[in-house]
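Weekly puzzle thread! Below is a chain. First person to post its structure in token form gets bragging rights.
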Amino acid sequence: MNADQILTQMQRNEGHFAKDAVLEAVAHRDEVIPSLLNVLRDVANNPEPYASDPNSMILIYAIYLLAQFRESRAYPLLVQILSLSGEMPFDLLGDTVTEGLGRILACVSDVDISGMTSLIENEQVNPYVRSAAMHGLLTLVACGKRTREEIVAYFHYLFQKLERTPSEVWDALACYCSDLWPGELMDDLRSAWEEELIAPLMINWENIEDWRARGKEACMQYMKEKNPLITDVVKEMAWCSRALTRPQRRDGEAHADACSGRLRIGFT
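Winning reply:
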């Protein structure tokens, strides 16, 4: 298959995962990358046709493949798409926002965190996208591309920077601080908790203290195991074989899972 044929097979959800096309894309990486980048450019410049069609899948295939390819040219385009206001990121990407997006951002970032921090600090960006960008930072620590210390320092900055309004962004910040081991950030977390900025259904104070008690080494080891980079699109997109349309889950459970793929009760 050539690049056009590969993209045609991934264009829409036909009720099955386009495994053959994905494998062909991986086998012809250099040939298909320009076409995948053109998909992102097209969506960034004119997102409505993609967002209004629940069976459009090409953007999701494209970002997963570009993540596996570590294609840094996708990074500014993806940040542009994710900066679209309101529900548009969900209309375009469905559950990918609360599941794989943070790791995708980490994969295409070439360890540059500026795109992710711009999303996190932009109050106009969808809060779940901002949370996913935090997850991207965590993933870079997990794979050894950024140090824990610099991301902890950035998270400390966020406690001063973020708007003082309860939101999924604060919930994610508390969760990811716990993932990194919350030791140095306990004062920040307590202030946010006392201001009721963090939803107790996402993580409560006892959970935070429990993660602190586990110690830095244990938290970091668990975090590294749970936040790998994307290396196998077929495995990552296995859900496509079960979904007939882009899933649109945006409930609290989805967000709790998105924090790091687990609930905040303990290691499971």
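Puzzle host: Confirmed. Bonus trivia for everyone else. Residues 46 and 81 are 10 Å apart (CA to CA).
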